[in-house]
Amino acid sequence: MLASIFVWNIFPSAYIEGEGLTPFKVGSEYAIIAVLLAAMALFWRGRTALALSVFYGIVGSLAASIAAELAFTLYFGVTDTANLLGHLFKITAFYLLYRALVEVAFTRPYDLLLRQLKQSEQTERAGRNFAEVELHACEESYLRLMNNALVGVYQTSLDGIMLFANSEFAHLLSFSSAEEMIGGNVAERYRDLQDRARLVEILKREQYVREFETDLWTRNGQSRHVLMSASLKDRTISGMVLDITERKRAEEKIKIQVEQLAALRAIDIAIISSAELYLTLKIVLEQVIQHLHVDAASVLLLNPHQYTLEYAEGIGFRKEIPALPPLRLGEGFAGRAALERRIVSAVNIAESEIEFRQKQLIEGEDFVSVYTVPLIIKGQVRGVLDIFNRSELHPDQAWLDFLETLAKQTAIAIENATLSEGLQKSNMDLIRQADRRRVGGNAQAYTICV
C-alpha cells in the first residue's frame, strides 16, 4: 500500500478539494462499517465468555466506530460538522476501548479471564499462575511504555533520592542510561535550589502540581528549561518532565523581533514627524542602547566638503561630551568604517591594533568593546554610528543584522533632515528674492510718481 501511494502513485484519491469525497472514499467507509458489524456480531455470539463491563465496552466502542465511519461519508469540506462529529465518535470509541481493555486490565485484571476459568475449582491454581504471568507481562509492558514515552518520567523520595527514571528523562539530562540516575540526588540537577524547595512546598500543601517551570542542569553542564507535573503520595514524588527549551528560545526570539519592530516604528515616526536632525538622532540612539543592550552610542556626520567626520549626538556617556576635533576619513575606527564602507569593531579596544583617535570621547568611560557601522544611503556615506560597551561584546548574527537595520534607518533620518533643511533654505531664498523685488518695484513706482 505504501508503495502504491509514494512510489507508483496509483492509490485512488479519497478527497478532492472543491468536489468533496470520492466514490472510493465512500465505498471504503462502508466496507469498514461491514467489517465492524461482523466483529460486533462475533462478540455478541461470545458474550457469555466475557465480563459484562468488557463486553459492553467493546460493543460500545464498535458502535461508536460505526457512527464515526458513517459521519465520514457525509462531509463535503474538511471543516464540516459531519467531519467533526466523526472525530468525536472516534475519540469516544477509543475511550470505551481503553475502559474495556487497558483500564480493566490494571484495576480488575481477573475480569478479563474467562468466567468458566474463574469459577472452576480444578483450574484455580492454573488460573492464579496465569494471572501472575499476565501481571508480570503487564509490568514489563508498562516499563516499555515508560521507556518509550516522549516525556521524562521519574520517581523520587521526598528528600530527593532518585527512585526511578525512564530513558527519555536520562537522555534529557545527558545520562547514558536511566540506571545511572538511580540513587542520585535530584537536587543537584536544579539550577536554582529554591525551585526544588518551592515544588516540595506546593506538593505538601496540595499533593499535586501542574505546569511547574524550572531550569535543570544536564550532566555536561548545560541548562534545560522544563515543564514539570508531579504528585506526592506516601512520601514519594512521581511526575513527568517536558523539555521546552527550544519553545522558550522561540518565544524569546519572537519577543525580541516584536521589540525590534516597535523600535523601528518609533524611529519611522521620529523621521516623519520631526525635521530636527538632532532630536531624531537622540531617539535613534535611545533605541540602539535599549534593543542592542549596550552602554553608549554616538553619531558622527560626514562633512562632504572637507571629508571629515564631526560629532553630532551621543547618549549613555558618563560626562558631558566636549568639543571634539573633526576626524579624517581612514583615521581610527570611525574613519576606517566610513572609508571602507564596512563595520569596524574591537572586542577589546585596549588590545586593538586600530587606534581610537577621539580619545576625549571615551576618556574615563571604561569602555571595553566598540562597534562602528557606516551610515550609507543611495550609495553615499552620511556618517557613522559608534556603539560602546563596558564589557566584552560577542554578538550573534541576529544582533549584527539588527545593527545594520538601525544604521540604515539612521541614514534615512539624516537624509530626510538634510532634504528638509535644504528645502527650508530654498524657501527662505525665494522669500528673500520676492521681498527684494517687491521693494525694488515700490521704489521704482515712487520715482516715477515724483
Automatic annotation (TrEMBL):
**Entry-linked InterPro entries:** GAF, GAF-like_dom_sf, MASE3, PAS, PAS-like_dom_sf, PAS_fold
The GAF domain sits at 276-424
Q: What is this protein called?
A: GAF domain-containing protein
Name the Pfam families on file. GAF_2 (PF13185), MASE3 (PF17159), PAS (PF00989)
GO process annotations (BP): regulation of DNA-templated transcription
Transmembrane annotation, as ranges: 30-47, 54-78
**Matches recorded under SUPFAM superfamilies:** GAF domain-like, PYP-like sensor domain (PAS domain)
Q: Does the keyword tRNA-binding apply?
A: no
Against NCBIfam families, the record matches this protein to: sensory_box
User: Has UniProt tagged this entry with the keyword Transmembrane helix?
Assistant: yes
This protein's UniProt keywords: Membrane, Transmembrane, Transmembrane helix
